[in-house]
Amino acid sequence: MGKGVLPDSHPQNTASARSTALQHADVVLILGARLNWILHFGEPPKWNPEARFIQVDISAEEIGRNRCDATIGLVGDVAVIARQLLGALEGWRWNSSVSDFLSRLDKAKRKNEDAAAGKAKEEKLPMTYSRTFDVIRSTLHRLSTPANGDVVYVSEGANTMDISRSVFPVEHPRLRLDAGTHATMGVGLGYAIAAHEAYNGPDAEGSSGPAQGKKIVALEGDSAFGFSAMEVETMARYGMDVLIYVINNGGVYHGDSKSADDWLRLQRASLSGKGESGLRSTSLSWEVGYEKIADACGGLGFLVRTPAELEEATVKGFEAKVPVVVNVIIEAAAAKKLVSTRPADQ
Q1: DSSP state, 128?
Q2: Dihedral through CA 238, CA 243, CA 249, CA 253, nearest 10?
Q3: Cα separation of 212 and 94, whole Å?
Q4: Better pLDDT: 236 or 11
Q5: In what order do the strands lie in the sheet containing 215-221?
Q6: Region label for 219, one of left (φ > 0), alpha (ψ between -120 and 50) or beta (otherwise)
Q7: Lowest CB count within 10 Å: 20, 33, 43, 324, which one?
């Protein structure tokens, strides 16, 4: 999705006002993306029903797909067409000072950023997603500012991926990987290995920002981590110092128990075969010790429950020269429905 091409700190980056931008845009230029499920297929109510989409794509068969208008689509390499568009628009200026659209975006950005900041400081145990990511973000930024460009973020999972997208800023391109177009789970650790080799391997060819080597940070939902957890052994075998966080809430989207006793009761009901209400099909075991996989493979493992423990593990994990798994116990949110908790404006 081109994350980082326009730095997250840039005043024209509207990531924190995404819904407002979609609902009020009248002309949309699509570069390097497709109008698929990630962008709600261009359909109302997420998008302005009057919006016109100008699609630039190297594949002719993609032009006009979903709400894109085939009569104004442009076939070709994005880099080439972008230069052509800039040339054609040379000398043209838009008076942004009288734009209601930009005023709406600025207001939405301030509102959403203030709301996110409030959630990030919520002190409760077990920790929430927002508090967990705030501790990780602030600690990593203390160790290395985003301007350095020496951290690559990989994320996968349900809420873990959705929420972390808006929490960890990047200032340079090619520093963010997630499940992408096909929403495939189980790719996170493979992506982390690939990113490590691209930036840190003996034949590294990757480049982004002033820093040459990169610390690879993988943010994994507990279910997503389970798909390819043994890739930690691959990392250890090849000396890859990947820092992995497993956000452990005991299930897909969320768990269904508030205590070990609750979980055991539901497990007994599931095993009874009597049709009693037991564990959801999306549930995982109670507080699985994912950090022990790293220990078993020659890496380092940390089990954390508090902000202080998470901060300490982050510092040690960032400085380690072996793969690290930080198993973060967060609230199970057992009473919630099986829906994403992505913020409404993300």
Answers
A1: P
A2: -80
A3: 38
A4: 236
A5: 176-177, 151-156, 215-221, 243-248, 324-329, 300-304
A6: beta
A7: 43
Read off the tokens for 239: 């000396």
Q: Which residue has the tokens 């990987």?
A: 177
pLDDT digits (tens, 9 = 90+) for 145-197: 999 999 999 999 989 998 998 899 999 999 999 887 777 889 999 999 999 99
Bridge-based pairing state of the strands 215-221 and 243-248: parallel
For residue 114 the two structure tokens come to 């203030």
**Helix, strand or coil for residue 73?**
coil
Tokens of 91: 């000398």
Count the residues in the chain.
346
Listed in sequence order, the residues at least 6 apart from 261 whose beta carbon sits closer than 8 Å to its beta carbon are none
DSSP string, 280-328: -TTB--TT--THHHHHHHTSEEEEE-SHHHHHHHHHHHHH-SS-EEEEE
Query: Rounded distance, CA 155 to CA 166, Å?
Result: 12
What is d(CA 219, CA 133) in angstroms, rounded to the nearest whole number?
A: 9
d(CA 69, CA 56) in angstroms, rounded, equals 11
Report residue 311: phi and psi, to 5°: -65, -45
Give the Cα separation of 157 and 159 in Å (integer).
Answer: 6
Q: Which two tokens stand for residue 156?
A: 């996968």
